[in-house]
Design goal:
alpha+beta; STM4215-like; six-stranded mixed β-sheet; 3 helices
Length: 151
């Protein structure tokens, strides 16, 4: 792998913090229960692979998971699903509008041309005795050597 994978994570984190989607967002999963009042986000790597290599240029796929958390004790109960659904829709829409994360990456493979496409998996997660409704957004980010090739 020729690219600084941390640059992908940093670019995504910077974008998410600036967009105001989350009460708190971080790289890596929380070690203690996140906020009980709003949406929390965690960014972590799922996989990295080479898409294409040509003379003097390479293209990698950095599959990043953006996990969103909302406390299951939130009231009213129906708002849990509605808030999380609205947040996921807005996050994906915003990321597609800024598809190169301010120039830090080549683009987001939204349709899955090179493998995974943007998608969301819903679930539940217990953390420190608190149950959260989660939505894991899969973000296939393409990075090319013209952007962040490391020496």
């Amino acid at each position: 792998m020729a690219f600084d994978i941390t640059a992908t994570l940093d670019a995504l984190l910077t974008h998410l913090k600036g967009a105001g989607h989350f009460e708190h967002v971080q790289i890596g999963e929380p070690k203690s229960p996140p906020s009980t009042t709003g949406l929390t986000g965690a960014v972590f790597m799922s996989s990295v692979g080479v898409i294409d290599i040509t003379l003097g240029n390479a293209l990698e796929s950095h599959i990043v998971t953006l996990r969103t958390y909302l406390n299951m004790m939130h009231e009213p109960q129906k708002d849990i699903e509605l808030k999380l659904s609205a947040a996921v829709s807005k996050i994906i829409t915003d990321l597609l509008a800024d598809w190169n994360l301010g120039g830090a990456v080549h683009g987001i493979d939204s349709s899955g041309e090179f493998g995974a496409s943007i998608g969301t998996t819903w679930g539940y997660l217990e953390l420190g005795g608190t149950i959260y409704r989660t939505a894991d957004i899969t973000l296939p980010i393409m990075v090319d050597s013209a952007v962040t090739l490391t020496q």
